[in-house]
Amino acid sequence: MLLGGWYFLRGAIPRGRFCVGLGIGLTSLLLVSRIAYSTLAFGTPLAYLVPLATSLTGLGILFGVAAHTTMGSYALLVKRRAGLAIRRWRRARRARGSRSKGSGSRG
To answer: 44 near 58, Cβ under 8 Å?
Structure first.
């Protein structure tokens, strides 16, 4: 997940979000596996969840999920702004192209 954060800070948003998502996915699979084992062995998942929630690992998982969500929102914002800039550029280019073609055919 740290690698994803590094890519995101360097501006490679899709790659950063992929790496963070991969880390969250693997962490989620690990959590489900440990919770299932704890439930089978001790009869309750609380034997695993209480120590996890009070440790730095639990805090890291929460920060990872928050980072993934924030990266998604930022990526959408950047995508919208880039789309708008491209549309403006195309419009301006079309307007210049039609002006030069129109003036040449009148003469």
So the answer is: no
**Which tens digits make up the pLDDT trace of 38-80?**
999 999 888 888 888 888 888 887 787 787 778 777 777 777 7
**Ranges assigned E (strand) in 8-82:** none
- Domain extents in the chain: 2-75
Q: Where are the beta strands (DSSP E) in the chain?
A: none
- From the number of C-beta atoms within 10 Å of its C-beta (0-12, 13-18, 19+), residue 72 rates as middle
At 96, give phi and psi (nearest 5°): -65, -40
Candidates 31, 103, 104, 99; CA nearest to 65 is: 31
Cβ atoms of 8 and 72 within 8 Å: the answer is no
